[in-house]
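Run: sequence + zinc ion -> complex structure.
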Amino acid sequence: MTAQTASNPLLRREGLPPFGEIRPEHIVPAVEEVLAERERRLEELEKSLTPTWEGLVEPLMLLDLGLEYGWRPVKHLLHVKNSEALREAHDAMLPKVVASDLRVQQSRPIYEGLVALKEGSAWASLSGAQKRVVDLRIRDAQHAGVGLTGDAKERFIEIEKELSQIATSFQNHVLDSKKAYALIITDKADTEGWPETLRAVSAQSYNQAKEEGDPDATPESGPWRITLDFPSFYPFMQHSRNREQRREVYLAYVTVASSGEWNNSDLIARTLTLRREKVGLLDFGTYADFSLDAKMAPGVAAVEKMFDDLSSPSMPHARKDFEELQALAAEGGQKEPLAHWDLAFWAERLREKRFDYTDEQLRPYFPMPRVLDGLFALTNRLFGVTVEQSDGGVSVWNPDVRYFVVRDEEGKQVASFYLDAYTRPAEKRGGAWMDDCLDRRRVDGKLHLPVVHVTCNGTPPVGEKPSLMSFGEVETLFHEFGHALQGMLTTIDYSDIAGTNGVEWDAIELASQFMENWCYHKPTLVGMTAHVDTGEPLPDDLFEKIKAARTFRAGSNMMRQLEFGITDMRLHHEFDPGGAETAFDVHREVASKTNVLPPVDENRFLCAFNHIFAGPYAAGYYSYKWAEVLSADAFGAFEEAGLENEKAVRDLGRRFRDTVLAEGGGRHPMDVFRDFRGREPSTEALLRQNGLLD
Ligand code: ZN
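>> structure
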């Protein structure tokens, strides 16, 4: 090691990453060195491996340690302390890191070694968790075509290349087609009833798009420019009183990328054809079979059963929702029958009538320190662990970042996390997320404890006043902390499957959404409120409104998600891309059954369905609902036992900790869930919590 590398903070391999010391100029030399070392070790392993746990899998997992300390902090800083220099260094190294990951995953000697281990005599002596590490590595390699040879291999690579080009074009068409549309409103009368934010957003949009020399728009007097971006489109549909303009914007929205130079229709057909051919090479019947092979859901039939179980009770509620809107529209003077472009508008009127409250009304009740105390107290009550602030001496990237240690019932440290709570628009990405910092693993016999990041974008404290959270921010914090708990309370020592690693995609939101449920439990929620000026807890009527808002139009919302999920599954399973029926026919048929109003003839929603044609949700859109079913059902166990029954809550909490949180990716999620719940998941709790059971 040279003097330069010795002082490079990205080259350490122990303790916490020294975030405060990392500079952009450290990145390129450190990552170059890490990748070179990884390549050397990989080559060595390829030559010398023996198909045993110690002779192959342990050194294989250790290949990632350098990147854990040398690259993960870079990715993290890119999101929370972005700068031009950092971005440049990151972008310079990213392709090399991706290539290195692919090199490991596509190594034929490693793959053959893993298969030999699975087929050899040493297999029987491995533990369940060890077997799973090997199985997941083999599965991922096979899905990436590593097992193929000759012509099949070549064709596979060709297909992958074309699919990835199509996905990029698909996405670009959606963007360009959306960008090309705008409705310019000049008559102030047409903006009557608009919220302030919509006026501001649309005046700003006008100014950004206007020709040089055109007069500036102002929020008060326009002109206003409505686009198909969600923050413009959706509030417009909710608040515009001009029905004809609503119709125009709606039709533009459902026909995005469906004609002219950005037409995605042929790309949809081509994608579905290529996907089917690709998975055929891997010996799967359909793309859905392939997708589900790496998921918790046991098969297409199980997913379809979930769709049925959710839609039969939800559809009558969706009909009732529709009738309510119809009545309200008639009352409000609309003569024409309800059309698609009326739904958001009247739903918003109904919401205002029933339980209007604003974030600003709620914020004073949720000072962040109080919310954190409540969250940590709940964590203690459920899982027996204590959370303790422990900033002293920990190197961080911003002085507002807090560091916490998590201790078990004996007081022994089991994990820790960073909380980066406040927004910093100049350098930090929006939203909230949980990310791994260090995995739980053994290195030279020594146990590395897991460390995670919890990142939010709350309002920073002003003067003496603490950060005040909206209810949505509280819910999000609980969500991310649920992920964090699964990352931290893992008892698995193999980094591949420790914490949230290796958890099947459709099960990953179980712990997070489970924690969200507690935000609707009155004593828990009210217990962590104290008005910033008066100290008063959240008043009952506000709690009731929050609760009612959760199930508002739940039947309609459920059916909308089912429309997307069922369409996705049909297209990737029964549908024959070479047959007479088109993908649009499939969507139309599904939409006619899942909507009270049949879709308009012009509807080409599929042409903008990035999730499944340009994102990772192909034959996976169902995962949203699958995970909701799991988390609701897990919470249902607590409801059934009685949320005020201290002993029952405590026992169930420990069981949740010892199964879902402790085992994470260490076992198949269906087995883990069954151990917690005593049976397979049921849709009943979700339907009940959504008010959809009669
Ligand atoms: Zn999540």
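>> summary
Residues 3-147 form a domain with the Glutathione S-transferase Yfyf (Class Pi); Chain A, domain 2 fold (CATH 1.20.1050.40). The beta strands are 183-185, 224-226, 386-389, 402-407, 413-422, 433-438, 441-443, 446-448, 451-458.
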